[in-house]
Amino acid sequence: MCIGLISFAGIFVKFVYNLATHPMENPSRMATGTFNPPETQPSRPAHLRFANCRTLLQLLRVHGPCSKADLVRSSGLSAPTVSSAIAQIEALGLVETLGEGESSGGRPPELIQFKASHGYVAAADIGGTRLRMMLADLNGTPVAHWSTQFAADQKDPASVCSVLDEGLRAMCQQTNIPTSKVLHLTAGAPGITDVRAGIVRFAPNLTGWTEVPLRSMLRKQTGIETIVENDTNLAAVGEYRQGAAEGVEDFVFVAMGTGVGAGIFLRGSLHHGARWSAGEIGYLGVPGAPREPMEMHKTGQLERMIGGAGIELQWLERLERAGLRNEPELAELRAPQIFDLAQEGDLLALEVLQYTAVILADAIATLALVFNPELIVLGGGVGSHDRLCRETDRLLRSADFAPPRIRTSFLGTQAQLHGAISLSLTAVESKLLC
Amino acid sequence: MCIGLISFAGIFVKFVYNLATHPMENPSRMATGTFNPPETQPSRPAHLRFANCRTLLQLLRVHGPCSKADLVRSSGLSAPTVSSAIAQIEALGLVETLGEGESSGGRPPELIQFKASHGYVAAADIGGTRLRMMLADLNGTPVAHWSTQFAADQKDPASVCSVLDEGLRAMCQQTNIPTSKVLHLTAGAPGITDVRAGIVRFAPNLTGWTEVPLRSMLRKQTGIETIVENDTNLAAVGEYRQGAAEGVEDFVFVAMGTGVGAGIFLRGSLHHGARWSAGEIGYLGVPGAPREPMEMHKTGQLERMIGGAGIELQWLERLERAGLRNEPELAELRAPQIFDLAQEGDLLALEVLQYTAVILADAIATLALVFNPELIVLGGGVGSHDRLCRETDRLLRSADFAPPRIRTSFLGTQAQLHGAISLSLTAVESKLLC
């Protein structure tokens, strides 16, 4: 009995660690034996207690306030096991009692809930011109926002880290949360990011961002455990968790703003590629345009043609031809405003929108040919314009192939922050019970 | 004890079913209890015995002939458990004894080996002009090959199925294997294939292949369990299992022959896409060429320019200009022969190879931008030419971005068949013990 059981136990613990879904019963009664699983592991009873606590915590987080009897029912654990695990979790400050619930006859049961204010996680979206930040509790509910425009001399890595630290402190002050309660930070950077090494390889829209060890810089600056990720990838995670791609396992998030890039989501998680550069579609060639050699340190062809600046150039050329180049209220319009004008029926603006949609539709067709995703989510300051989405969709549907569904981002400029919070919550989860 | 154990057991059984790696001890001694896992399952002891048999069978297949003592050591199971499981496997005809091994002092131990001739699996590669077939034993070792050129009136679905059946019977006759021992068939088709439904959506190089229920047709024709898959995807599986991409989890197999297509391999398995059309790169636009609307029922731009016919057209144009158009031994050369000529230093042929490599390098750059794979494997009658691979690699390396590694197929025209055998072996594996 014993030997087999231990082989069970080792596997089971790994199983629970991975999925945290299957509860088990009273592990303290488990016998020990001589079989050694391949990896060294700490003593099993502690691990099993940990797994029980984790299961109950997860139930509390998903289902909200409930009684111990509810937990017994939904976990399959025995009442004494639930009681002892809840006591342990309570001692760590992770749950709180809420008073009494509805009685089904006898004494009304005490309700327990996950204490989301036990800790907080922070998100930072480092853009080419501004820094956006968010603080959220352990349920992912935002409790504070902060943002600032970078001054011209604030775009180097060290300055960005110190502005970010300032933002973190400001949010903690606003909310009266001690910085020690901020358990994790995820920062998004506008460039190719080696998530494993914590290094931003290259971010062309900032100053001096080549091979920046952003993760260790931020850890040092803030004292907080940190993940760094590409900003478009974070936006894709955000849209997957609670946005336009909720529940869609295979989709591509196409971000159009100053730059053009994509976050590739396959089988329910980000696809980074062998060198962390998957989704760098700004460098794609544009059908019908002259062939160009690829130069990673220059703006790519697609981005040059339908990034914000490319769209505004098209607009200025058309104003010029129409003799309207000197009207400042027209000449100074930015890409989203030009699309607003198109929406109102302005013919010149409609031409620019049409120009953009044709090129965007070709790029999406390329993505569809390679990946055949279920869905494309258009995001970013330019890409999330509803009229652009509808026109692109119309063009794709008129072609002779089955195109993916297209929809605009639900989370807009907040997508990156929500994605970052989601990654931080996942990172923190396994440490809550330690 | 009991209740927890059963919760263990349910999970453990699922675990072994998925991975078939972790052995366990003497399940017949397990107690039963009242905990019901969410899914209904047959009685556990039978399941656990099954899991033990499966573990031992896997060890025998991987390690080759070994003694019961070897199995006890490498499985972690007890000697009586191994003995009873081996007796069970032997009764099913899945192992055979080989005589005596080397003695370590006492009586020399009897060696047992997996009986690969217990059954066979068949592979069929349906091409635009010919059918290739292979029969392999349960170790995947080929025992027979068969191939035929389709007559002009043999390219419709029903005729292809009957030619395939003929090939199957011919291979069985050659080898004296009763068709009843052929346990599974995987057939590859040159078109978009819905693997789940068993339907070939569209195969332009055959006749009348639109929405063909190939799986059910083949099952009916041959009486054998069948999988249908896209041929390029099968080639990718073949290269992954025992070819140029062995052990590479993220790679793209680019097939260039009459057609141009790709098999996308992601995290160690095929990526099919939402509508089974991932990798249809023949329709990609070619940088610098005029923009074309996408028409799935015509030849795509990339395929038209660097598929076999496109390359041969370039060659004829150059012959024309050089006044050599009427030399039949030159004018009738096919793409691989033109590349052979380039290899020997012929300048016109080198120009054609260069033309092809530039366009191929751009297509690979597109794949690298969106997918960033570790490796590109070039295959197919045209794509596997070594000189083309070297020239494409040189062009990619001269560009200003980190390109993927490129290598030619190791398995050549046999890649599809090896991939098919591999899928059939996986499909058959779980049924061997039933």
Automatic annotation (TrEMBL), chains A, B:
Superkingdom classification of source: Bacteria
GO molecular function, one term: DNA-binding transcription factor activity
Record Gene3D superfamilies: 3.30.420.40, Winged helix-like DNA-binding domain superfamily/Winged helix DNA-binding domain
Domain HTH marR-type: 53-97
Family: Belongs to the ROK (NagC/XylR) family.
PANTHER family named among the record's database cross-references: BIFUNCTIONAL UDP-N-ACETYLGLUCOSAMINE 2-EPIMERASE_N-ACETYLMANNOSAMINE KINASE, ROK (REPRESSOR, ORF, KINASE) FAMILY
Protein name listed in UniProt: ROK family protein
Organism name: Terriglobus saanensis (strain ATCC BAA-1853 / DSM 23119 / SP1PR4)
